[in-house]
């Protein structure tokens, strides 16, 4: 079943033609609980939209934006849409739940001991601005990078650890519980760093730069574990499966490689071949260079966006897409945390929302996912169980 376009959000400001007018949507993000959506809509602005919005309301929001109206979307709880004026072109976005305040803490951003949601924004001048979502207040300005902050990733376990990837060829680790103190600088890339992703179990960090290899780091010691070599061109995007057992990397070579991050083994290559001419929506665009890849929340699907103007959805155990849809100059994609649809950002500053396959995970997959959440590949291989079961648990039965 092909993805269906549910709605499209458009920038509410007229396009400008100086350098600040950059209107590409380089990053989109959902909060971990799915309550907010953030959109780097260009013009140095981030839009924060409360969620969930029904399809009808989503379409109304799209219409308001297309007309440049000032009406504000409201969630069921009455939260209002917010505009964050960042002062610089925004490249990266990441949400995290702020730790609950301890007794006696007078910090107004975390009153009543309730966890506060924060949004980190990576900017054109190397700054990282961290905002409190409910109020729209600026909490921190993190300084250290010497060039564009291209991507951001919070530790998924809710700890206040933030990793940033920059065109200055470094990754930096920040601790927001210590006033945004810089904890570590990770140097190892020789090109711009495009993407960073922390594994759901918070043990590993993958980074992708304008190089043919991706780097895998330890989140415990902040040391390099290994280089993942196999692509023929620049690696630009990476993502871990929900159980941390798989890692995917996407490259300008039009391929996605699926890795076992524990062993460095290549498990599968997904090639973005041109569609049949009668189905090819890209007409004069023949390049299938990848821009973004992401796992679905249950870990059974992948979504990819490429320069051939197609959104593709892949089933974990198949080598060909199970669905695709024509889109306009896609740059990024992300699944809704509870599944069901995908948000994509485009080069013209728009966001498109697409339906995605809904699937009831098999008991086998749920068991594998539960086990792999706390067992490494080496630990699985050491278990006194049949070989076929080991192959299934290590995703080697494709």
From TrEMBL:
The gene is Wsb2. WD repeats lie at residues 119-141, 142-177, 186-227, 228-269, 283-317. Pathway: Protein modification; protein ubiquitination. It comes from Neopipo cinnamomea. One of its GO terms (biological process) is protein polyubiquitination. Pfam families: SOCS_box, WD40. InterPro entries: SOCS_box, SOCS_box-like_dom_sf, WD40/YVTN_repeat-like_dom_sf, WD40_PAC1, WD40_repeat_CS, WD40_repeat_dom_sf, WD40_rpt, WSB_SOCS-box_domain. This is WSB2 protein. Keywords: Repeat, Ubl conjugation pathway, WD repeat. Gene3D superfamilies: SOCS box (1.10.750.20), YVTN repeat-like/Quinoprotein amine dehydrogenase (2.130.10.10). The keyword rRNA-binding does not apply. Residues 362-398 form the SOCS box domain.
């Amino acid at each position: 079943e092909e993805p269906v376009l549910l709605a499209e959000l458009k920038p509410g400001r007229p396009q400008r033609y100086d350098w600040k007018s950059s209107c590409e949507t380089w990053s989109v993000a959902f909060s971990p609980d799915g309550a907010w959506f953030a959109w780097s809509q260009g013009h140095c602005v981030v839009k924060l939209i409360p969620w969930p919005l029904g399809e009808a309301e989503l379409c109304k929001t799209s219409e308001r934006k297309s007309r440049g109206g000032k009406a504000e979307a409201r969630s069921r709880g009455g939260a209002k849409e917010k505009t964050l004026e960042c002062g610089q072109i925004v490249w990266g976005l990441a949400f995290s739940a702020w730790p609950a305040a301890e007794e006696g803490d007078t910090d107004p951003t975390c009153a009543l001991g309730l966890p506060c949601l924060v949004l980190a924004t990576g900017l054109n001048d190397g700054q990282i601005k961290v905002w409190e979502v409910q109020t729209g207040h600026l909490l921190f300005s993190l300084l250290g990078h010497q060039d564009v902050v291209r991507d951001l990733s919070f530790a998924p376990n809710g700890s206040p650890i933030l990793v940033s990837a920059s065109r200055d060829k470094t990754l930096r680790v920040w601790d927001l519980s210590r006033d945004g103190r810089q904890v570590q600088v990770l140097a190892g890339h020789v090109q711009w760093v495009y993407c960073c992703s922390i594994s759901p179990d918070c043990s590993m960090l993958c980074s992708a730069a304008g190089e043919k290899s991706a780097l895998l780091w330890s989140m415990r010691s902040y040391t390099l574990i290994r280089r993942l070599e196999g692509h023929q061109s620049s690696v630009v995007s990476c993502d871990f499966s929900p159980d941390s057992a798989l890692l995917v990397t996407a490259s300008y070579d039009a391929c996605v490689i699926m890795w076992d991050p524990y062993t460095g083994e290549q498990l599968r290559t997904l090639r973005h071949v041109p569609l049949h001419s009668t189905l090819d929506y890209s007409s004069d665009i023949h390049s299938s260079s990848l821009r973004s890849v992401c796992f679905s929340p249950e870990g059974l699907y992948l979504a990819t966006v490429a320069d051939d103007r197609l959104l593709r959805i892949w089933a974990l155990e198949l080598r060909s897409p199970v669905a695709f849809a024509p889109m306009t100059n896609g740059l990024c994609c992300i699944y809704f945390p509870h599944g069901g649809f995908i948000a994509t950002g485009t080069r013209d500053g728009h966001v498109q929302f697409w339906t995605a396959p809904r699937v009831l995970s098999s008991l086998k997959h749920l068991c594998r996912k539960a086990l792999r959440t706390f067992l490494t590949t080496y630990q699985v291989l050491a278990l006194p169980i049949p070989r076929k079961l080991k192959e299934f648990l290590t995703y080697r039965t494709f």
